[in-house]
Write a structure and sequence with these properties.
The protein is an all-alpha fold. It contains 15 helices and no strands. 12% of the residues are buried.
């Protein structure tokens, strides 16, 4: 029991110390600085002249980034030594671990293209230390299902209007409506309202009813669909913020649970110490009873009559 308590206490002490380091603002600032340095190195390597002239320096800086990221990951792993499952429950931790550990995979280290892509992925690790950026990225991910539905509806509207445009304007404006593909490209560009005036004037030259065609298309494609997409993104952003708040509450609950566990471990250690003290006191009482012929079990104190009698008898 005592060995288990000592092992658990040592692991918790290590996790507490590493957690204090990883949660310090200086630690986050240092990691962000290394991430920015890594991004700058990637940009410098795109210039062949600088890459050749400062090749040794760039290689040394890249090694420094790898060592710094590795130490950072080891500290964060040690911060979860008392609860390792919590580390892998966070997708950002898993992403960081994969990106950092990829630098040590033999096949990836030899492939220059994949290695540069993985080094580029390190820039995304900034989200781990910037909560607002992390919320935005999570919101983009959660908005993908709604975005797919938006794209399907937009493609359907574009197809219908492209067919109508081909039927109505193919003979008069073959450069823009001569085929389904050209009509779709023309209408796709009109979503941005670029060249809408010229298209309306060309349509009015064919028929005055073309204004209904363009007005309805602009209303659906440029206003309704765009507002729907904004609504999807805002909804996903709100969900991402709620998830961030839930993670904070879960982290606080885990911290309270850990504090309670430490109190229980300390209490168990104190109980074991009390039992040992009681055993020592009982052993002393037994020894005193053996030394005292009358069988008195008075407490062992300095100047006790029983000890004095025992001392006199011994003399």
């Amino acid at each position: 029991m005592s060995d288990l308590i000592r092992t658990s206490t040592g692991r918790e002490r290590l996790a507490a110390r590493c957690r204090d380091v990883s949660e310090a603002p200086v630690f986050a600032l240092g990691v962000i600085s290394v991430i920015i340095l890594n991004a700058v190195l990637l940009g410098v390597e795109t210039y062949s002249g600088l890459s050749v002239e400062y090749g040794v320096l760039l290689h040394s800086a890249e090694r420094f980034c790898v060592v710094a990221f590795s130490l950072e990951m080891l500290i964060r792993l040690a911060a979860h030594a008392d609860r390792p499952k919590a580390f892998f429950r966070d997708p950002w931790n898993v992403f960081d671990l994969l990106v950092v550990s990829s630098a040590f995979v033999p096949f990836l280290r030899e492939n220059t293209t994949l290695l540069r892509l993985l080094r580029l992925a390190r820039v995304l690790r900034t989200a781990q230390f910037m909560p607002q950026l992390r919320v935005l990225l999570v919101a983009v991910g959660r908005s993908l299902p709604g975005t797919v539905s938006f794209l399907f509806v937009g493609a359907l509207i574009l197809y219908v209007y492209a067919m109508i445009g081909w039927i109505c304007f193919a003979g008069h404006d073959p450069a823009h409506y001569g085929s389904l593909g050209r009509a779709g490209l023309t209408l796709f560009l009109l979503m941005t309202l670029e060249g809408l005036g010229d298209a309306v004037h060309a349509g009015l030259a064919v028929s005055p009813f073309s204004i209904i065609y363009y007005a309805s298309y602009v209303l659906l494609a440029s206003f309704v669909l765009v507002n729907v997409l904004i609504g999807v993104v805002l909804n996903a952003l709100e969900e991402a913020r709620e998830m961030e708040q839930e993670e904070k509450r879960a982290a606080q609950a885990a911290a309270r649970q850990l504090a309670g566990r430490r109190e229980r471990v300390a209490s168990e250690g104190a109980d074991e110490l009390r039992l040992r003290i009681a055993a020592v006191r009982s052993a002393l009482d037994d020894m005193e009873a053996q030394l005292d012929p009358s069988g008195a079990t008075s407490p062992v104190t300095t100047g006790s009559p029983s000890l004095a009698g025992a001392s006199a008898g011994a003399r």
